[in-house]
From TrEMBL, chains A, B, C, D, E, F:
One of its GO terms (biological process) is rRNA 3'-end processing. Residues 165-283 form the HD domain. The keyword Hydrolase applies. Gene3D superfamilies: Hypothetical protein af1432 (1.10.3210.10), Nucleic acid-binding proteins (2.40.50.140). Residues 22-88 form the OB domain. GO terms for molecular function: hydrolase activity; nucleic acid binding. SUPFAM superfamilies: HD-domain/PDEase-like, Nucleic acid-binding proteins. Coiled coil: none annotated. Keywords: Hydrolase. InterPro entries: HD/PDEase_dom, HD_domain, NA-bd_OB-fold, NA-bd_OB_tRNA, YhaM_exoribonuc/phosphodiest. This is 3'-5' exoribonuclease YhaM.
Length: 322, 322, 322, 322, 322, 322
């Protein structure tokens, strides 16, 4: 498996899924393929030099391949140089004792049981408007909500990442409520907003293993998609004149916190401030931690684009101290 | 009428509508009222010094009043000092030979006939999706679309301003089509986008004489309201899976041109670039011209906020040269 | 008491402390005084019109005064117009059954018992470096840390505000730890950073009732003052070569999150990201809630400078729903 | 011809002009040449791998070459791999039945006849100052004005591009005049400003086939060059004290709209707002359309730098629908 | 004289020039005049309450007036309240033993003798192009160059301020030459650029006592005016093809250092970097020092707009220590 | 030596120190090494193609190597292609008649004698607080202060660069004092601030030949390190309550001029303005001149990152004209 490969493993045999294929031309004029490989244990980049048209034909995004490859370390990142490969079609999966589930990284939480907890919790709320709209929407898109990633690369880009991220926000909101009991906060709005704030991603992302956005996603954005979900559902439920619907829409629309980050309106409900802050914090912790795990203790991560290009120091390893 | 008052008219009698009342405390501790007055010929600011509670009670936003006032020039702007006033109730309108229509500035175009031209033109388009959605929406909100202003103060803040602004965009788009015939532009999308880009203002603005935004407008913004109009209408018309709907939504969502100006997505259709450019140009010409008309030839306008605080030189008077 | 005054109370008698006196010249050429008054129940602005030199002499920042005043509502904020006043000297406190403690707003938590809890908690940590430095510093400045406000006006500007804010961060950090147990976070660094991040304010603020910053505070800033506290304390404790000291310094230095907000270094430890995020969220919730409490349900707050001038809608009252 | 080459044409023979030669070192240590080729039908990039010093000598910017090359598709852009080449000197042109005009892309309008129309139109204006200065300047630089490109790469980078762009602005301005007849706009100033706004490019660009800027252009910029053209011409015509000259200078100086885009003054005449808006729109439509034409319907363009790195969706093909 | 007035001088008699008159309306509805007064010793603001039309007529910008006034301190700035006034016409100057020179603040250097030194120094340079153009231009505008201020309010707003500022730059440049002798700097270009960089202000400013900019200044800006001075002079001297002319133009055009500060080109000669840095430093020192002189030692200045609103601490008095 | 190599020297033999080794993977899948070489005469980049693990082992940062290499010009920069190499260990230095000092570029000033002049000058100051703290600190770190570079790459990245830069600021400050004798400037504070403003770099930089920053430097930054130096030294000298100490701290903390450039406080002493301006100017002159020296007269430098990516024209060569 991918996470077992390291700089010392000179030659490896690996079965993996191609998350994305990029065709490149080398400076000597010959083509080569960059293969972003993934299995349930992690991701690794492989390169096939001097690729032929047949290679391009076979090594498509989504294919399951078995490769013989040499390891290489480039800018402190492990790379593979493909010596030979074989595409494994679906009918051959059994022969290789594999199934498609083995080639995706999954969120490290039990999505199914936590989804039930989430539904149960929302069901326990008192505000019937927030409750109904939230439950109806997540049930309409239950499968996508439970399996889609939260982003292509910025954060939570794993199967179930969208749910994981949304659920983390809900948990975070519940946990800080006690600290802010002095304030006039409609916590039920915070909770439902946390669950729904990224729901438009079920349309924006191309699928649970998506490495790309859909055209619809690029033209509308998940914020506006989520907003129309609420608007349409309110009409269905004959709630279009209820002002609590506006509040749900507002916390989705304002969830990026600022116009320049893509929110058409900036928060003007205190609940929107809480949701957008927890959203940003959750994404940042995921991403920084993900990069920290790629380097050794004492080393600095590469430049993280979403952190304005900053590097972070890996100074602490939770496993050591437990 | 307001546009007949000038610095020379020492004492005036005027019937006008209060567009907005602002209660202020003077530096001597007594209260006074700032009355933004309007009639069909223009706007003027009046002040009632040493106001009583009864004055506050009577001089409400929306009231029609008859005043005796002295003129005053402050920072090159005419002001009125109210000496005495009388509130005119609706039942007394006839007695004063007035009607409510006389107390609003209207767009200087024939809205009704131009609305018909607009409908006819949209009806002549070939794209059935753009056409149906556009016509259905403007008909649903025909009255508001024809009477609401385009903004509280930035631009086209007159009765019919929303229509005037939208129609100007349509006319502008039609006029430049010939120049850009070399380009791959879906002009029917430009036309329908021009008509619909600000349609959410029928909810965002508080009314045809609105000097304020609605709560719904502040929480959602006209861009997102317009987007849900299209989304909801597409469902009604069973067009929700038609990709042309997405394009209409996109040109509304991207009509402010940049995230930082409140568009949740930036243009990724060339038609969105044309609409957002014409939108900005139309609003700027209106506003700068409006300020130029307040000062004499050879003078500079006050600082215009929407123009980054710049002043403009009144160097040319179209009437002179005609 | 101040919080009992409302628009209906026409004439009031009040004993209060002058938090700040501002001398102004009215547009009629006479002077007047703006008095920011405070007692334990709240704040209110009073004005004394046509003030004399003697008034200026007597109505100094810090004085306790007894006034007869008329209420006035200006831009939806209650104001008082002082008709007569009397300064109450310390020797007369007993006569009026008052003491100085009655004229400050205090943080709505029990600072003493919570300070003990905080010390106990820090004492329970395993990292001796973080623990010792944190405890030594807060003990050196225990009195200031427990009584100073967190800011002049932006947030937590009450007696004990600095402690309240720091303690809220600690509570928030403890509460979200469970959500982020997957990540490589040195929580003890987060906890001590939360406690120390604003400790420099014990020098930066002019006192527990401070309405101003000290010269030292303006020249150095609380971030750099806090950083030298840790550096100096480490030398005292002979820990200057321990790398954990650097980490504590880093999370203080980076606590504003970005250079442009006054942090000389931006976070490069994940713990700095958590602290700066919780810091911003805590200050924002305090400030927005404070403004929400000044307006009625259904109304919008004034423009909040620290929120980029945005207004917030008061849509929910926690007391109603409890 | 270049526009006839596509991914299917495996081996091609082509005569083209080298618009720019870039020497590069491959990662294997050998040099190679990137040749930007152009003929009247379009542009294509070719690469000569393992180039020798002799190759570098011969394959200079500006040379006409005949190549045998293999096609290659790289990041959805067609590339050529040069197998062999031959330089064609001017004396051999006849032999190959070619002439130098065949190796430049030209603006898709008849420059000569449109130039005459432009002159005629300007001649018909009433303002003698605008008219004389404009005509004198464009006649002084007639050849450059009619043949130079409008930019190296951002927009209208074809022979005659400067004229095409300036003429498009004039046409655009004339077409929208009707929409803005209500406003105090000196349209003759708009027209002459449209013609002259980029005139400094006749010095800034290195020539009609320029792929580079002159030193003079880099040190002064076309805006300041154009401004001195007007100033010098006014002295020649003894008009230096006429205030209309200032207005012409102003609309040139302010034509980039904002200081940050290189205008030393921002518009303070309404005509400057119209010119700078039409200028930006014209450049954007050209560039986006140019990129749209490089990709197939349904595909997204590459990231366009001048559009803040955005991609655009090719969703409409004007040829299909005509 | 103005600098002899202080808070203790209760009633004063003063003859001064009105630098600027601003008509205002008080909150009690009556008008008042703000008079910016100046004499050779300094500036002070005076107010005439309850002004009549006759007052407005008489108290014009530029008038010399004799007033009886009461002192007042407002926001730590001294103000005068005019009790009575008398306008002194030119024919009465002798009677009052005054002349117009007594009512302007002058640069604290001997402009005439330093101007001669400057001319002599430029005459001693070796580069004939820089030398001739510089000398010809400053001689053409000798009177304005020697008397005009450098700005309306930002810096060096005194008679001779333009010369003082330009001469300071020249002195600064000469003084640091020794430090940078290692670098490839064309010091003669720096010197001439220092002298000419603001020369366009002789047109931009309305006069030596100017409190306003000319229309020409506002439409073109001093940078572009100075640039055409050089261009026109080069033509006169038949130097239009000499490349050193371009360099002089470049250092004028780039003297604001960045596009966003109004330079149409940013420095691409090292000499432009030196000039723009010394320019900014000189203006800042003047302005900050000017504000420091208004407050007492130990106090902070008001917010200085050109310093991003920062206040400065007056901590050192050069007179004390000399 | 490196500065004797040029494009004409086809094959060269060179002994140099590796300032930094970067391992790269070529597009053909083989590794290569980029070697930044340095000797006392300059820097040059060399590449070893198809590197083996043994090469990587031997060609470490810091090694002294003897190479046979071919010259190559890439983007107008000279490069070397290593044909063969030999590592020279310290014990072999004598055999090759070399010593370690020969492989560093040094500041082109006599550091030792100028350091003595600096100490003497500071000793001559009157302010005992500034004097003692400055002298004590630079003596504590004398060796580092005299040998460390001022930055890794931005400016003065040579042995002794930190001293050179600090000394240049001192010289610059002394030279302009005469120009600003009218202003209230505490020049002794300027002088000591100039000397100390970057002193934290003795910790931030990894050594005199440093091509990297220390972890401590990255976590704290040289500004905060320098600030604690002063704070700690003041305690040692029992000066912690002296307000002049605050001023020294302030000019260090504010030396980057703006928050966004990493200063935790912006200047609020006029001396801080002078120091930060001279600091920026000195760094810019060094860097631009350094780039100008890499290209021929008449050519443009590459894009300079610290100059917002601008190129500069080499138009003047000081050697020619001397």
């Amino acid at each position: 498996m991918i996470n077992q490969i390291n700089a010392e493993s000179k030659l490896v045999t690996l079965i993996a899924r191609i998350e994305k294929t990029i065709l490149s031309t080398g400076n000597n004029g010959s083509n080569y393929l960059i293969l972003n490989l993934v299995d349930m244990s992690g991701r690794v980049e492989a390169r096939l030099w001097n690729s032929t048209e047949k290679d391009v034909e076979e090594l498509k995004t989504g294919s399951i391949i078995k490769i013989e490859a040499a390891t290489n370390v480039y800018r402190q990142q492990l790379q593979l140089k493909v010596n030979s490969y074989e595409v494994i079609n679906e009918e051959e999966f059994e022969k290789h004792s594999i199934n498609i589930e083995m080639f995706s990284i999954s969120a490290p939480i039990n999505v199914d049981s936590n989804f039930e907890k989430l539904v149960e919790f929302i069901n326990s709320l008192e505000n019937e408007v927030y409750k109904k709209i939230t439950l109806e929407i997540i049930k309409s898109y239950e499968s996508e909500f439970k399996t889609f990633p939260a982003a292509v690369s910025i954060h939570h880009n794993v199967v179930g990442g969208l749910f994981w991220h949304s659920y983390s926000l809900l948990m975070g909101a519940k946990s800080i409520k006690e600290v802010y009991k002095y304030a006039n906060v409609d916590w039920e709005l915070v909770y439902c907003g946390a669950v729904l704030h990224d729901i438009g991603k079920v349309i924006e992302m191309a699928g649970k293993n998506a490495a790309e956005y859909t055209d619809e996603g690029r033209l509308l954005g998940h914020i506006s998609i989520g907003n129309t979900f609420v608007s349409n559902k309110a009409i269905e439920l004959n709630l279009q004149d209820n002002r609590d619907v506006l509040k749900l829409q507002h916390v989705i629309l304002s969830s990026h916190g600022k116009n320049e980050y893509g929110s058409p309106v900036e928060p003007s409900l205190i609940e929107g401030v809480i949701i957008s802050s927890l959203d940003a914090l959750d994404a940042r912790i995921y991403k920084i931690n993900d990069e920290l795990e790629k380097v050794e203790k004492g080393a600095w991560t590469g430049r993280i684009l979403s952190e304005d290009g900053r590097s972070y120091l890996n100074h602490y390893n939770k496993k050591e101290t437990k």
